[in-house]
């Protein structure tokens, strides 16, 4: 995949998304989709997900983030298009 084919999105997921394996499950899903980036807890209780990859893979991740893993409760997902910054792999912080 060339850099021209890449897109990037920053997601901010609110609800019960900390302490319920949200980041780990998001990482697993992102890796399966071939995305690079990160998922990290924010001080306000939300989770930030930055993902870089194909538009189709980003759309699939966005769909997943609407509900997350079984113990999560997602109240809202904000989406922002950002400049792609190639990263190696997908990590949690």
What would you say this structure looks like, in words?
It is a single chain. The chain is an alpha+beta fold and about 90 residues long. The protein has one domain (about 5-85): Alpha-Beta Plaits (2-Layer Sandwich). Helices cover about 25% and strands about 40% of the residues. It is built from two helices and five strands. It has helices at about 20-30, 55-65; strands spanning about 5-15, 35-40, 45-55, 75-80, 90. Strands 4-1-3-2-5 form a five-stranded mixed sheet. It is globular, with a radius of gyration of 12 Å. The mean pLDDT is about 95.
What's the arrangement of secondary structure elements?
Elements: E1 7-16, H1 22-32, E2 36-41, E3 47-53, H2 55-65, E4 73-82, E5 90-92
Side by side, the strands of the main sheet go 4-1-3-2-5
Annotation, overall tally of beta strands = 5
Counting structural domains, the number is 1
Poorly predicted spans? none
Hey, roughly how much beta strand do the residues contain?
35-45%
Largest sheet: 5 strands, mixed
**What class do helices, strands and sheet pairing give?**
alpha+beta
Per the CATH scheme, the topology name is Alpha-Beta Plaits
Distance between the termini: 26 Å
CATH class: Alpha Beta
Alpha carbon gyration radius: 12 Å
Mean pLDDT: 93
The succession of helices and strands, N to C, reads EHEEHEE
Shape: globular
The CATH architecture would be 2-Layer Sandwich
H/I helix tally: 2
Query: How helical, in percent, are the residues?
Result: 10-25%
């Amino acid at each position: 995949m060339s850099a021209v084919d890449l897109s990037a999105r920053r997601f901010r997921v609110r609800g019960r998304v900390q302490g319920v394996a949200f980041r780990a499950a998001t990482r697993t899903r992102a890796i399966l989709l071939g995305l690079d980036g990160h998922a990290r807890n924010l001080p306000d209780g939300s989770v930030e997900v930055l993902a870089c990859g194909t538009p189709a893979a980003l759309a699939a991740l966005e769909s997943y983030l609407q509900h997350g893993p079984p113990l999560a409760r997602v109240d809202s997902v904000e989406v922002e298009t950002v400049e792609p910054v190639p990263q190696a792999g997908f990590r949690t912080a």
